[in-house]
């Protein structure tokens, strides 16, 4: 199988990156991770790129042309697919036009519910019975692109924010690879 050259964008811990690196070693998993981009030089997830000898790029988002620098590198590594794995930054319209339908994101709620930040506290405050994670295409609207895959669980009375996060992330490690397989199954 010809694997898609993929770039993973991160901002922090990188546990989804770690999981995708592991999954992408399967010969029939549709992506090959060629580059990691981080907007945070302290991101722990960069260690997974280093350990696995994956080239990485740290961008300074204070500079006005940081997205152009990313775009140049995507070209250099012949990237045709992008996964946002905890990348906490909005992608500009200009960038999106160049990678339309080629960027996916994972979000820690059952979209369209609880778009944006602080999802777990809002979920608890709203007394939701269920929550989970969503993988979706990225478009101009915050957490608003077409949904590819969701996974859910029932919330227990004693679940606090920390527990919700752990349970949600456990599902993310299944949902992100499943979504990627679903996208490329018929390609
Ligand atoms: C993930 O739980 C992901 O759903 C969330 O950030 C976490 C990153 O964890 N993304 C968002 O909140 C995007 N709005 P990781 O760095 O360990 O993969």
What does the model show?
By secondary structure, this protein is an alpha/beta fold. It folds into two domains: 100 residues, Formyl transferase, N-terminal domain (Rossmann fold, 3-Layer(aba) Sandwich); 82 residues, 3-Layer(aba) Sandwich (Rossmann fold). 34% of the residues lie in helices and 23% in strands. Strands 3-2-1-4-5-6-7 form a seven-stranded mixed sheet, with helices on both faces. The longest helix is centred in the C-terminal third of the chain and has 24 residues. The model has no long low-confidence stretch (mean pLDDT 97). The site of glycinamide ribonucleotide has 15 residues, from helix 1, strand 5 and helix 6. Glycinamide ribonucleotide binds next to helix 1, strand 5 and helix 6.
In short:
The protein is of the alpha/beta class and 187 residues long.
Ordered list of secondary-structure elements with their pairings:
Elements: E1 4-10, H1 15-23, E2 31-38, H2 46-51, E3 56-58, H3 66-76, E4 81-84, H4 93-98, E5 103-107, H5 119-125, E6 130-137, E7 147-154, H6 161-184
Helix pairs in contact: 1-6
Glycinamide ribonucleotide binds at residues 10, 12-16, 45, 85-86, 106-108, 133, 169, 172.
């Amino acid at each position: 199988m010809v694997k898609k050259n993929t770039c993973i964008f991160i901002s922090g811990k990188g546990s989804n990156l770690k999981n995708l690196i592991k999954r992408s070693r399967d010969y029939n998993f549709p992506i090959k991770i060629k580059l990691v981009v981080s907007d945070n030089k302290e991101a722990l997830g960069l260690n997974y790129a280093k350990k696995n000898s994956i080239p990485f790029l740290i961008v300074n988002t204070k500079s006005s042309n940081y997205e152009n620098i990313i775009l140049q590198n995507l070209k250099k590594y012949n990237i045709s697919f992008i996964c946002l794995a905890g990348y906490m930054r909005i992608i500009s319209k200009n960038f999106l036009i160049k990678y339309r339908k080629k960027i996916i994101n994972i979000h820690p709620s059952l979209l369209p519910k609880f778009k944006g930040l602080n999802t777990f506290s809002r979920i608890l405050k709203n007394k939701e019975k269920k929550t989970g994670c969503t993988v979706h295409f990225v478009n101009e609207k915050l957490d608003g692109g077409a949904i590819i895959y969701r996974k859910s669980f029932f919330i227990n009375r004693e679940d606090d924010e920390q527990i919700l996060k752990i349970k949600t992330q456990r599902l993310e490690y299944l949902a992100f690879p499943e979504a990627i397989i679903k996208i490329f199954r018929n390609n």
